[in-house]
């Protein structure tokens, strides 16, 4: 069983690839001063970058889990998502209100994708 890991750290890897499935760690914004729209854009850009490094893209997302700290931000997060997601390739998705490890983070996104 071969597993490839990218951006390996002491606590976690940003990406794990097994067979033709890509698993991303939860992605959060570095600029926590941004509003939900700004943080969501930054997180989705990270998803794009990591999927590209792993040999995939957003059209190959198999499942997406979104954690937001306040459901009042759901419409604004969805606005950014709707601009980003590839129409015709919208993946199964769950969105949950959750307390995140860093209170300044408003959104965290976890993606599983297939290789291109």
Q: Give me the Rg, rounded.
A: 14 Å
Helical region count? 2
Give, in spatial order, the strands making up the sheet with the most strands: 1-2-3-6-4-5
Query: In which range does the helix fraction lie?
Result: 25-40%
What is the subunit organization of this protein? single chain
Helix and strand composition category: alpha+beta
Question: Could you explain the architecture of this structure?
Answer:
This protein is of the alpha+beta class. The protein is built from two helices and six strands; from the N terminus they run E-E-E-H-E-H-E-E. Strands 1-2-3-6-4-5 form a six-stranded mixed beta sheet, with helices on one face. Strand 2 (13-18) and strand 3 form a beta hairpin. Helix 1 packs parallel to helix 2 (74-84). The model has no long low-confidence stretch (mean pLDDT 98).
